[in-house]
Design brief:
Two copies of one chain form a homodimer.
Chain A (H helix, E strand, L loop, with lengths): L8 H8 L3 H9 L6 H14 L5 H8 L4 E6 L6 H15 L3 E6 L4 H13 L4 E5 L7 H8 L3 E5 L8 E4 L2 H14 L5 E5 L6 H16 L6 E4 L6 H14 L6 E4 L2 H13 L9 E3 L16 E3 L2 H16 L7 E3 L3 E3 L12
Parallel strand pairs in A: 1-2, 1-3, 3-4, 4-5, 5-11, 6-7, 6-8, 8-9
Antiparallel strand pairs in A: 10-12
Helix pairs in contact in A: 1-2, 1-3, 2-3, 5-12, 8-9, 10-11
Chain A binds a DNA duplex (16 and 16 nucleotides) through helix 2 and helix 4.
Chain lengths: 342, 342
DNA sequence: TTGTACGCGTTATCAT
DNA sequence: ATGATAACGCGTACAA
């Protein structure tokens, strides 16, 4: 019952008395086969349970349908949402996606890119615009279609779609200034680990500085940038700081909610005793008793746009090298009302 | 400056006046090359920037280092945590992982498995034990190492590591009975979509039935099984139900927190007016003002164990076909204290 | 220890 | 519209 012999193009051809080339053409749906022959071939292929050998195909053609996607992490919904946005486009265009998580290590990303190239990848998606030193030049030399997503730059490796994180930080900072805050703190991860977070902090810094606030107290914490870390780091901020901050900004909304919980737990009233702000407007924000003041990033749209552009790029179309998705401040209930509209 | 010519085994051999085979052997680190030759070859390979062609390698050897991992979704931390648990083992063993998300579609999973086989995958990881009808027999015929993870069964396709979701539901149900609850509700997704959730509900049902409670009111909701859906569905449960439940169990802790928020918002006191329970003990539970009563699943351990076993299986070792990771009830503050220890 | 011949399954090229 | 031939880059099997 079990058919041990692998059925390939050769076997199908033999069955019908046709050459391998006709079979290959029919199977790939390219020109050069009569309608009858094609139909016959497809029938036999289905009946015999033919499956293409992708390795052979890729070796012979020097092409593949593989798109490699490098992400720092899958926690905290941001990257899964970007992925979800990309999926339909890649599926429709017939590409297979290979996801890797780098855990924010540029070295790991660079290694992984090489392995994807070893597989003859058709294109790459990298997170952010900060990579291992040689990677940029290498990908340019190879001329492999590469999408940098999530962050922005004027001069991407190839093409990019993302948000301006400095601007996002600046927007939030300006709003908080307008709310009357002037003793800001920031809770995040070690510097250099998440470059986007670093940029948001820079934007915040500029806004607060020009607004006449005191220097931002920065609290950094290892581990997953989520609820628990947000809570723990908040303890650090409130205890260790020389002056108690009047508002704490967090790397993202999950950390912010952790901080909000902590404040509530120790009896601090939010927003009266202290303000809380996050980034990204994550799903959880829709159901919190106190909605968090945050900056909206359109992650699904970003993924969809990025995938569409990368596919076009692979197909040789000329497209915008840089697409910037706008961010928007979203006032919540964890900060005081702004004195006047910013 | 740019070296257009792809450097392969042939080029390295030519450079040193050696045959391709010696180069191949040295590069793969197998026996049969003198130390000097090997060293020379490795040096030249590095200098010339040699990169192995994975497709050619896989085609010639009929092997690959690819492990395909099929997951229903990347949202809600469960599967990212399982992935994180598998990572170190697969990395060390030199395997590349290809992740696909099926969005709970068995058909999509089956299609994707075929594509992985087209790439000559060394092994597969599938989520759960419920798959498309023919998939099971197909993988057995092919004898491809396959790990089923997250759920349990006595007769896996090949090997399995997971938790007993029926038992998890039963544990929770028994505890809630001991707390005095007898008008239970369950909030989840449409039946058949998440088979593990279905099993947890079955376990709950058995426990409540034997405990003399009324039938479980079931509320199902489309979309991402997370905060927002949990909140929305709770509204449905409380309005539409003929009798108001005294405890609501949710598919997972994220939905449970959504429900908790909703109850608080409409002025219901938890746990005095109504009890709330979840599943999985997700990270968020560590920082909630009211910790959720839940059932602990050890997802990192599960991933690590599964990966270890799959690698052993690929290497031909004989291992346990079924590994069951125990679950444990974790009493929180969203339910009444149990009358006596269960 | 090293080398030779051949095949993996498919596609490109150039014929007919 | 169809076919013959030669790659693609590497590994297996066997020989020297």
């Amino acid at each position: 019952m079990s058919r041990k012999a692998p059925v390939g193009i050769k076997e199908i051809g033999a069955e019908l008395g046709l050459s391998m080339m006709s079979v290959s053409r029919a199977l790939r749906g390219v020109e050069g086969v009569s309608v009858d022959t094609r139909e016959a071939i497809l029938n036999v292929a289905k009946r015999m349970g033919y499956r293409p050998n992708r390795n052979a195909r890729s070796l012979a053609s020097a092409h593949s349908t593989l798109i490699g996607i490098s992400l720092p992490t899958l926690f905290s919904d941001v990257f899964p949402e970007i992925l979800a946005g990309m999926r339909a486009t890649f599926d429709h265009a017939g590409f297979d996606t290979v996801i890797d998580t780098t855990d924010y290590s540029p070295a790991r990303e660079a290694d992984w890119v090489e392995r994807m190239l070893d597989w003859n990848a058709a294109g790459l998606v990298l997170s952010g615009v900060d990579h291992a030193p040689e990677l940029r030049q290498r990908l340019r030399d190879l001329q492999i279609p590469t999408l940098e997503i999530w962050d922005t730059t004027d001069d991407p490796i190839d093409i990019s779609v993302g948000v301006d994180h400095y601007e996002a930080g600046f927007q939030l900072g300006q709003h908080l200034i307008a709310c009357g805050y002037n003793r800001p703190a920031f809770v995040g991860v070690p510097e250099g680990r998440d470059r986007r977070a670093d940029k948001r902090l820079e934007g915040l810094g500029t806004a607060f500085r020009t607004g006449g606030a005191s220097n931002i107290i920065v609290q950094r914490i290892e581990g997953r940038a989520a609820f628990e870390a947000g809570s723990a780091a908040t303890g650090g901020v409130l205890c260790a700081a020389p002056v108690r901050p009047d508002v704490i900004c967090y790397l993202n909304d999950h950390m912010a909610f952790g901080g909000l919980s902590y404040c509530t737990k120790i009896g601090l009233a939010v927003p009266d005793d202290i303000g809380i702000a996050g980034f990204n407007d994550l799903e959880i924000n829709k159901i919190l008793p106190l909605s968090i003041t945050t900056v909206v990033t359109q992650r699904h749209l970003m993924g969809a746009t990025g995938a569409k552009n990368l596919v076009a790029r692979i197909n040789g179309a000329v497209i915008d090298r840089c697409v910037r998705i706008p961010t928007r401040l979203k006032e919540g209930q964890t900060t005081l009302r702004a004195a006047r509209k910013t």
